Amino acid sequence: MISENLREVRQEIQKSCALVSRSAAEVTLVAVTKMVDAATTKAVIDAGVCHLAENRTDKFLLKKQLFTDYPAVQWHFIGNLQRRKVKSIVNEIDFLHSLDNLKLAAEIQKRAINPLKCFVEVNVSGEDSKQGIAPGDLMDFIDGLAAYDKITVVGLMTMAPAAATTAQQHELFAKLRKLRDEIQNRELSWAPCTELSMGMTNDYQAAIQEGATFVRVGTALFKE
Fold first, then answer.
1. Cross-strand pairs, 123
2. Which pLDDT value is given to residue 224?
3. What is the distance between the alpha carbons of residues 22 and 20, in angstroms, rounded to a whole number?
4. In Å, what is the CA distance from 138 to each residue of 102, 120, 170?
5. CA–CA dist 157, 99 (Å, integer)
6. pLDDT by residue (tens digit) across 19-36?
7. Helix 2-19 to helix 38-46 angle, to the nearest 10 degrees?
8. Is the pTM of this model over 0.85?
9. What are the distances in angstroms from CA 186 to CA 16, 77, 156, 177, 191?
10. Do residues 33 and 46 make contact, with C-beta atoms less than 8 angstroms apart?
11. Pure H helices in the chain
12. Which one, 71, 146, 157, 183, has least CB within 10 Å?
């Protein structure tokens, strides 16, 4: 079942890229394994997906221990990271998708052995229920990260509202791309900002058409 679901997702990625003359090789599929067990996680790895995402520190640490024999796997943390949990996972993950405040950055700086690849979370939609930096505060936040050499801002991340129309999805994702381009054009050593983490099961096609380089897909991969 997972192999068939994966084939369908990859076909959708290919089609979405073709619509805007992109190569599917530009898009990294991140399997959101937060709701599935170890056996199902192993199945998706065996099917060829090597980027996995979790959103709870305790469950992530338990799951990672089971896959020490899979050195190709790269782990993404996509949840809200509490500062008191940074010590336990900062040197266990490859990517953090939810950097949105300087206190968290300071804790990462204190605990990280090597620079951590981070996506700055941006609340493009302005929803009160969402975490993230307001677009108007983003440039000042990026400048503030210059003091932390254990953080590399590889890109920006956002989530569209679950009820957004396709047109609204495109609008929000396009706004994040423009913000990414502004930062990338500044050529900052600590914030190359070449990537865009946006798009989930219900909207990854629109995200890819607007430039997503990482899509975080769970339900479409693990549906029965």
1. none
2. 75
3. 6
4. 12, 9, 20
5. 9
6. 999 999 999 999 999 999
7. 50
8. yes
9. 29, 27, 15, 14, 9
10. no
11. 2-19, 38-46, 57-65, 86-89, 102-111, 138-144, 166-185, 204-209, 219-222
12. 71
